[in-house]
Amino acid sequence: MMNSKNLAKSGKEPNQIEPVKIILADDDKDDQELFKEALDAAEIPSDITAVDNGQELLDRLKDDAEPNPDMIFIDINMPVKGGKEALREIRSDQDLKDIPAVMLSTSGHPQDIEDAFSHGADLYVQKPNSFAGFVLILKKVFTMHWAKALMNPLKDIFFLSDKNISRRD
Question: Where in the chain are the domains?
């Protein structure tokens, strides 16, 4: 929490929200662009870095010159190093294990969801078929993040898709 003394030092206006630092690991450039556009449409102040695979994600996270992000979004199916493997490595690293990790996939297969949960993901998001669905999901993800609901995720709210989100709200 920033008090008025720290606020004066930071040079920020009191009503300015600090952007959420995000790393998106997704090999599909169109999906990267869609994600960024949906964040903008959801009016989520963010500073996003996109990488093309799990190995680039790990390299970025382990780069001491780069601060850890507030959250990472990881596509499950990527070349070089897939999302599940990258997640396992992140969760086994003392310096990285507490970064909230959201798995992204077109799959809603129960085994993929179970694997992501058991390997320590904080949330599993099925990529929606529409832009409006993506905006809705991102709003929900960040509402949960800001409410600290992504810490120690509960199994019954672990899987989000644009088909089940409206039933929960």
Answer: 19-168
| pLDDT tens track, the chain, 169 positions | 333 333 333 344 444 568 889 999 999 999 999 999 999 999 888 999 999 999 999 999 999 888 899 999 999 988 899 999 999 999 999 999 999 999 999 888 888 888 888 889 998 888 888 899 889 889 888 887 666 655 555 545 555 566 666 544 4
Q: Where are the alpha helices (DSSP H) in the chain?
A: 4-10, 29-41, 54-62, 83-91, 110-118, 131-146, 165-168
Strand partners, 73: 24, 102
The domain made up of 19-168 has a fold known as Rossmann fold (3.40.50)
This prediction's pTM: 0.77
Which helix or strand (DSSP H or E) is residue 74 part of? strand 71-75
Strand pairing class (46-51; 71-75): unpaired
Opening angle at CA 78, ends 47 and 58, nearest 5:
55
SS3 5: helix
The length of the chain is 169
